[in-house]
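Supplementary notes for students who missed Thursday's class. We covered one full example, reproduced here. Read the sequence, then the structure, then the short commentary at the end.
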Amino acid sequence: MQGYPGKAASHGALGWSSIALLEDQEHRVLVDCGSFGVRPLLLERLRACGLEPQHITDVLLTHAHWDHAVNWTLFPLARVC
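Structure (token representation):
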């Protein structure tokens, strides 16, 4: 999901992070996981790839800002780093 660096009327904030999915044969890694406001879209995008939250093995947080890190709780089986 592509982030937005400027003011966003739909998200009520000055911006929000991008979210990237990296995969290989063993791992499915989310780089950042967004804020509460993007939860429905994040889950929709994962399902479009045939994935559910339990399929994510790792969540890599680039830093602890709310727009990058809040949704880590959606991935109970993932290692968070």
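Commentary. Helices lie at 39-48, 66-69. The mean pLDDT is 88. If anything here is unclear, bring it to office hours.
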